[in-house]
Amino acid sequence: MRQMDPKNPYHNVSGGTYSNFESLELSTLIKSIDRVDDHTVRFTLSHPEAPFLADLAWYFASIHSAEYADAMLKAGDAGEGRYEPDRHWTV
Predict the structure, then answer these.
(1) pLDDT tens-place string over residues 81-91
(2) What SUPFAM superfamilies does the record point to (predicted)?
(3) In this structure, which long-range contacts are made by residues 27-31, counting pairs with CB atoms below 8 Å and at least 24 apart in sequence?
């Protein structure tokens, strides 16, 4: 998981800071994450945690394919560059 592993190629996408992840103490809760098959991921937790499934629904805990992540990195930041209005204004 990129939030837990500084060696993960996507760890620094957010500058390496994951405040929501840390506020939920997921780095101490999640012991391991294993790919079971193409459609299944197994999380091993350090202790029972009732809201864990709800926590995974947060935007920062999304599981994306490496291909998708690579495409997003190549695309660059959304809104890159300064805003320059043109001569036409719609009101």
Answers:
(1) 677 777 777 66
(2) Periplasmic binding protein-like II (SSF53850)
(3) 27/3, 30/1, 30/4
Has residue 88 been placed in a domain? no
Structure tokens of 67? 């291909």
Whole-model pTM: value is 0.65
DSSP-assigned letter for residue 46: S
> How many angstroms separate the first and last alpha carbons of the chain?
46
The three-point CA angle 53-15-17 to 5° equals 45
* Helix extents (H) in the chain: 19-23, 26-29, 52-56, 66-75
Cβ atoms of residues 50 and 44 within 8 Å:
no
Which structural domain, as residue segments, surrounds residue 47?
11-75
pLDDT tens, residue by residue, 30-66: 999 898 998 899 999 999 999 999 998 888 887 878 7
